[in-house]
Amino acid sequence: MGAQRLSFQSGVTHELSLRSLPSSHTLNLTEVGDHLVLLRDLHPSHQELTIILASPGVRANIVFRDTVGGTAANSLILHIKHAAPSTEAETDIHLLVEDTAHPRITGTIHILSEAKNTQSYLSLHALLDGPEAKCWLLPGLEIQNPEVKCSHAATVRSLQPTDLFYLTSRGITPNSAKVLLTESFLHQ
Which helix (H) or strand (E) holds 165? Predict the structure, then answer.
């Protein structure tokens, strides 16, 4: 099955539910200017999304926040593809993993040979809430042009009793402290 392609205007917030997209999907950002892409609702099984910065001067801020719980084994493969010179992207993913869920997020920045003077940053973060929760975060870079600034980061951490202790020692109930910590993680 071929990938569905959509083109977006600059200066507009593009909010996409991954659950409503086909399993393979491509977004073309062709208009010069700023693009804000808000992703939500991780697909219940496997999802592959490619975002192409296809014209010089395209800038994208890609944000994904979600909570995965139950026994979910979701998988997201995200490609940020710079296909033109002087493009910029900042991709920030925060995932709260609960219960026995074990999602896998693979994010790769692709810099094509013609994409000189490109800047791109990929940040993947997961917070585990439960002793059986697991998460695999796999950032990657594929750079075919040396005239770029590109980096990535990934962190996975558990909600610790000391995190809750600090707030409960100041009069916040344990349930409220947990909600406060998880909500602040998702809204960073």
Answer: helix 161-168
Q: Is residue 134 part of a domain?
A: yes
Q: Which of 99, 106, 70 is nearest to 159 (CA)?
A: 99
Give the Cα separation of 143 and 165 in Å (integer). 44
What are the pLDDT digits (tens) for 2-29? 444 555 555 667 677 787 777 788 877 8
Torsion of CA 152, 27, 78, 12, to 10 degrees: 50
Quick check: is 96 in a domain? yes
How many domains is the chain built from?
A: 1
Find the farthest-apart pair of alpha carbons in the chain and give their distance in angstroms, rounded. Answer: 57
Print the domain residue range for 31: 4-158
What's the pLDDT tens digit per position in 105-124? 999 999 999 999 999 999 99
